[in-house]
Specification:
Helix content: 25-40%
CATH class: Alpha Beta
Mean pLDDT: 93
CATH superfamily: Phosphoglycerate mutase-like
Strand content: 15-25%
Strand order of the largest sheet: 3-2-4-1-5-6-7
Radius of gyration: 15 Å
Structural class: alpha/beta
Number of strands: 7
Order of helices and strands: EHEHEHEHEEE
Number of domains: 1
Amino acid sequence: MRVYLVRHAEAVDRIGTMTDSARYLTARGRASFREAAARFRETGATPAFLFTSPCIRAVQTAEILSEAVRHEGAVIVAPQLSPGFDADGLNAVLDECPGAREVALVGHEPDLGRLLTLLLDLKTAYAMRKGAIAAVDVPDSGNRSQGTFAWLLSGENRISEISGLSG
C-alpha cells in the first residue's frame, strides 16, 4: 500500500485566546499548497482514502488536496492524526481501508517526520516542511513499522532520495 504523508500548509500563528486546533491556513499557505497539490496530481497519485487531523489547518490542506486530485470520496477526519500521531495511529487508520492501494494522511510535525524516520529507518531524524508530501510503501496489513521510500515533494522539488537512509 502506498501511503502519502502530507504535512499541513503554512498556518497563522496563535493569537489571543485562539486554540492550536483553530489555527487556519494563511493565504500564502493556501496558494503554495495548491501548487504542491497540482504537482502531486501530476505524479498520478489517486488515493482511495484521504484522512486528516481534525485541526482546521489540516482539514483545509486536505480539502485542497482532494480538489486537486479530484477525489470522489469524503475527506475523513481521523482523531488519530491529531498532534501525537504515531505508528500505532498509522496502523489504526490504515486498518480502516483494507484493499486500498493508496491512502493520503494529512497531519503535523513533528509527528510525520518521526513516523517517516521510523518507517525508513533513517539514521537521523527527518523533519517535513510545511506542505510537503512523502510517498512511502508499507505492508498492506499487520505491523507497518517498516516502509520503502518512493519520493518526496517539498517546496518546488521532487526528491527521489533522502540522505540518511540506512543501507
